[in-house]
Amino acid sequence: MFTGIIESQATIRGIDSNEGSNITFTVESSLTPELRIDQSVAHNGVCLTVTDIEGDCYKVTAVAETLAKTNLGAWQVGDVVNIERSLRAGDRIDGHFVQGHVDGTVVCTDKQTLDGSWLFTFRITAAQAPLVIEKGSICLNGVSLTVFNVGKEACSVTIIPYTYEHTNFRTVDKGSTVNVEFDVLGKYLLRRYDLQEEG
Fold first, then answer.
1. What region, left, alpha or beta, does residue 21 occupy, with left being phi > 0 and alpha being psi -120 to 50 degrees?
2. Does residue 12 lie in a domain region?
């Protein structure tokens, strides 16, 4: 479980695709000395398990299902990713409950520089639209955000300067693909509704 409050940024230092359909990433982070093997760490919102630690780098592996639903397959050496360690009991929840189980991706259709912030608009599909509500929570590339201007095909978020500088949102531009995790409560409600409709 995570909160969507990014702790740090990390750099992809190696990509090994010689493990069948899996890909193992070598990640360099200032948080590496505090990590341990088997620990869960969210990378751009994707929960991955630390499998090896050496110096300032650690390794995580993404399986085919993860690669199919996220933007991890497009990562390249040198890319910067947002990371967050799992929530500890007793911590303040400054964002919202995030599982690290990414639902898919969305594409940025517009980026505007405002007076003191940045406005990003993302395209959503018909299947995703019921999971997005005005002033609700959404997790994009691991960042907990409040969504607004919600329509049937798009929604927007505003990024403040601190978040812009301390996450990889500064690299997101029109046409960029980011990971999205919708609020878990909304997913449960939609599932219940779907089952009632089928019954």
1. alpha
2. yes
Residues 111 and 183 in one domain: yes
Residues 73 and 146 placed together within one structural domain of the fold: no
pLDDT in tens, 27-57: 999 999 999 999 999 999 999 999 999 999 9
Tell me, yes or no, whether 55 lies in a domain.
Answer: yes
Q: Which structural domain range is residue 125 located in?
A: 104-198
| C-alpha of 110 from chain center | 19
Are β-strands 137-140 and 177-182 bridged in parallel, bridged antiparallel, or unpaired?
antiparallel
Give CA–CA dist 52/184, Å, rounded. Answer: 30
pTM for the whole structure? 0.91
Residue 151 belongs to a domain: yes
Give the chain's length. Answer: 199
Q: Say if residues 190 and 159 touch (Cβ distance below 8 Å).
A: no
Cα distance between residue 91 and residue 169, in whole Å: 25
Domain with residue 81: its CATH number is: 2.40.30.20
57 CB-near residues (< 8 Å, 6+ apart): 13, 14, 26, 27, 28, 29, 32
Amino acid present at 123: R
Q: How far apart are CA 16 and CA 184, in angstroms?
A: 32
Are 110 and 72 contained in the same domain? Answer: no
Task: Render pLDDT for 112-136 as a digit per residue (tens, 0 to 9).
Answer: 999 999 999 999 999 999 999 999 9
